[in-house]
Amino acid sequence: MTAELVRGQNHPLLELRLEIRISAGTPIVAAATIGDDRGTVRGAEWVAHPGAPVLSGVEVPRQAAADHRLAVDLGAVPEAAHRVSVLLALPTTGGGPARFSAVAAPFVAVTGLDGTELVSYTITDLDAESAVVALELYRRQGAWKVRAIGQGYAGGLTALLTDQGLPEAGRLAATIDEAVAQGLARSVAAPPQRTAEGDRSRQTSAPALGPDQGATAVAHGATGHVPSQPTFPHAGQTSGEPGQPAPRPPYPDPAASAPSPEGSGASPSAAPQPPASTGGPIDYSHPRRRPAAVPPPPPSAPPAQPGQPAQPVAGDATGWSMDERLYNQVWGMFEDLARTTAAYRSAVDFADSRREKELDQVLSDPRGRIGGQGDAAREAARAKHAELVDRAREALDRDLAQLTAESEVVEPALPAAYARWDNPVWHGYRVPMDNPMAVRLGDLHLPESPSLRIPMLVRLPLERGLWIDSGRSPSSDDSVTDEDALRRLAMDTAVAHAARLLAVHPPGEFGVHVVDPAGAGAQSLLPLVRAGVLASPPANGATGVADVLSRLTQRVDLVQMAVRGGIPDALPPGFDTSDQLLIVHDFPHGFDDRAVTQLRYLADEGPAVGVHLMMVADREDAAAYGPLLDPLWRALLRLTPVPDDHLADPWVGHTWTYEPPLVPPGSQVLHQVLAQVAAARRDWNR
Known about the structure:
The structure is a single chain. The protein has ten helices and 21 strands. Strand 20 (644-648) and strand 21 (655-659) form a beta hairpin. Helix 1 runs antiparallel to helix 2 (169-181). It is α+β, with helices and mostly antiparallel strands. The longest helix has 43 residues, at 322-364. The chain has helices at residues 156-163, 169-181, 322-364, 371-413, 483-503, 522-531, 541-564, 593-605, 630-635, 669-685; strands at residues 3-5, 10-13, 17-35, 47-48, 54-55, 58-59, 65-73, 83-89, 107-112, 117-122, 131-140, 143-153, 438-445, 454-459, 466-469, 510-515, 579-587, 611-617, 637-639, 644-648, 655-659. The protein is globular and about 75 Å long.
């Protein structure tokens, strides 16, 4: 049975050798790109288009036509490839239509080599776009799946290829246009008009809920795009404020330093490609196949039988180290939970709208308002609605069960930087000798699956400061009602975050300063003070605030001047180059206008030179400063000491509930870890 997908929906692929059939009402150009695990297309050699129609495992037509067939062998694509995107574009020459709204909705189908249709997708709701990503075949836990994308670009192929990270996208787009213009891609006339029964490109139907349903509720504007990698919610804003994902620091492309095959010294892109096809079947052999760009994941469980979900394995993702593999796997879990929940919500919305439409049709006919015929029609509409919702929930529960099983395997395997405080890894804690790549700031979950927690991992060094909100929001947990208790819990949360950052860095690589003007956070700060892991005692009063801010501001100025002047070795003797974290408690008590200006300066300029900010405050208390602090509030990542659904997700529009990583009540793990950190710092300072 064919699965008819809607935008964002997934479906597993049990075959590796496939055909992708495309039909449209006008000649269009078909192409394909290969992306790595982050969705990035590394170069023109990873693009199949009419001017260069053959890649390893992918072959596209040489001509612009209303009907296309693409050949794909997923077993023959480069091992570094994790995504194969199918692209459609309107030719820029020949006087044809310039936007997809002027043509019939393109229809795309994935079939087996015997012609059996596995998946179909009609690309609707296109307007000013002239290029579109139709489908994406992607690798997940060793298995391949197909996702309906339907993301259009008003800027044409240049905008599409740029969004996929392709260097010199404009030049490649011009090459494709030139191939079309010079006859390398020969245009053919549109086929005769199809009959109503055979015109599947113009039919609409209920979304088929496949075994692995997932969706992305993305706005499809003329210039929109689907992120190549999911972004965690923008925690600096409420769910009513559309956020943008914070930029992550780039890390080296593993393929850029991968050795060339057979020690020839040639770059991976220089590997020979199969000869262009002359119309016969694609040659699936791949002589001198390139090695994987990244080390393969560790041995996993035996492959699942067809139709059965794969057995989850911790670290079953790409990466140079186990920490990187686990980090990428957590991202994949976050992505899957977001998509499958979006698919469920989309299916329920569709069922609701379909029921309302059918009921309106019944009521619009006076003969159907009374009598048994009307009652039967209304009952049929309700039964159909219940069936659609039940099918959607069944698919959601199946995906949640798989994600839960994966979480149960991944969570115990996480390193200290990613683990909850109740993870046994802390009982065997040893001070690390290398900086971590990320740190856990809490857990995320959705209302449809409150028991499934996804770790909220943030790359290090922190590019944004943190605001621990000690005030109550409308959605805050009612378990803490006392205002003083909430403020104390906020400071406890800040201490837990600071202790984790100290624990996951090598000795001497991370320092913590505390500003507590009124001394109200003394009780919460006791673990840090007694262990002796602070860079200096907590600063009290206005004088202490001014002294700490002045020293850190001067540090930022010195490092900036050295870096911008190209003389990073010209820093004063004994200058501490380690990362620094400033915890500000009970803001704005003890702050004058000068101190507030310095604080904003540290928030804006500090992260780039290793000075980070953590505010513990109630925004209402800082309201006296008016709009002066609005940029500071927006620049920081807002966290809470109690569960709160304030995280707005710009990727699929979800509102995620955040839970802080608090130390279990009565546990001594924090004191034990800090004692080891203090001992390691003393040994390092000798």
